[in-house]
Amino acid sequence: MRMSEKTKNILEWIACIAIAVVLTLLFRYFIATPTVVQQVSMYPTLKENQRLIVTRTFRITKNMPKRGDIVTFEAPLNSSSITVDNSNPVATYLDEDRGLFSGFLYNVIEITKKSFIKRVIAEPGEHVEIKDGKVFINGKELKEDYLKPDVVTISESCNDFIVPEGYLFCMGDNRMKSDDCRKFGCIPFEKIEGKVICRFWPLNTFGSVK
Hints:
The chain is an alpha+beta fold. It has helices at 5-30, 58-61, 99-109, 181-184, and strands spanning 32-36, 51-55, 70-74, 115-122, 127-131, 134-137, 140-141, 160-162, 167-171, 187-188, 192-201. It contains 4 helices and 11 strands. The chain has a 7-stranded antiparallel β-sheet with strand order 1-2-11-3-4-9-10. The protein has a 4-stranded antiparallel β-sheet with strand order 7-6-5-8, with no helix packed on it.
């Protein structure tokens, strides 16, 4: 039995829509995606409700973000209550088998997934010291022109350590109001979700973010 012209048109539309959805998801996961600032931890560099474009091309190139880059990453397990120290400065994540469908919803669609946005401060193998209200990398004071002049950096438990291989140490620019790696530890590469490349909303703030 020959397919009617109407049925053929419907199937063609369904196929086009399915292809468009797949391409959109692939672009969003591997190339770039928009995001919204929902925290005050990066103030004044970023403010709540600003819209950003985040690149994810490192998932293809394997070129991880560097010091000074602003990144988003999956929030560690119990990030609001956990505290690490110099002996084991790594974030804790719940390694669970979500299954194919649940894993797709969580990692690709990102339903129920909580993310943080912070700045990369130190890379693998670097010695981090937080003392006298400042940050030192391999014994040299880190120049942080993006901070407000009166900002001091304090860390009670995670303040003298070496960033493990495969991890990044990140902090918010609003140091006194940022739950970051000082509290929950360094972030593994596989939990980094993207690097901020520009801000597009509000329109009067459109442009690159440093």
